[in-house]
Structures are given as structure tokens and as C-alpha cells.
Design goal:
Layout lengths: L2 E5 L2 E4 L4 E8 L2 E12 L6 E6 L5 E3 L7 E6 L4 E6 L8 E11 L4 E5 L3 E6 L1
Parallel strand pairs: 2-11
Antiparallel strand pairs: 1-3, 3-8, 4-5, 4-9, 5-6, 7-8, 9-10, 9-11
Length: 120
Amino acid sequence: QVQLVESGGGLVQAGGSLRLSCAASGSIFRISDMGWYRQAPGKQRELVAVITSGGSTNYADSVKGRFTISRDNAKNTVSLQMNSLKAEDTAVYYCNADLLGINIVRGVYWGQGTQVTVSS
């Protein structure tokens, strides 16, 4: 069974920083893309950032210049450094991974989410 577990969420004042981490574990052969999504109350889930196995990154326009996504392929982890946080960043943040299990079956997995609350 593959599992993604997020950590690092919490309450922070506007202008502050948080670092989210996600660890993938279980019967994993290889992880392709990893990303972070977020969903605010009453709104649709949106892509925040994605990083490929080769290290290429893409960001939502709303977070460019403030957030940085990174990964450690040896540890099957992905992180999101969030700086200059705004109240609009308040949401539940979800880790996502597109991977091959040890049986070479492709699957897309999601973490349970971690709450980020930014006070203004």
C-alpha cells in the first residue's frame, strides 16, 4: 500500500513562512511527478506547484516568486517552502504523486492534507 503523509502546516501571520513536507512510502518502484495542491473553503482545488523527476518545476501565478518546490528522490519526499504568506494562501494543502508501484502499475496518490492558516 502506498501512502503520502504531509506535515508542516499551521498558523502563521501574513508575511511569515512555512515549510510543508510530504513523504511517500510503501511499495513504490518509481515516482514521476510530485506536486502540491490546495483547496480553500467553498473553492475548487487548485494546483500550487509541480516538480518532475528530473527537477523541472511549474508554479501557479499566484505563488510565483514566493513558493519553492523541491524533492529528494532518494527519500521519496517533496517539500514546499512558502514565504511572504498572504491571507489568500489559507487552505488545506495536499501532496500528490504520480508513480509506479513495485508491480509496475501506475497510480496517482494523494495525501490527507495539512491545514495552512495565514492571519492578516
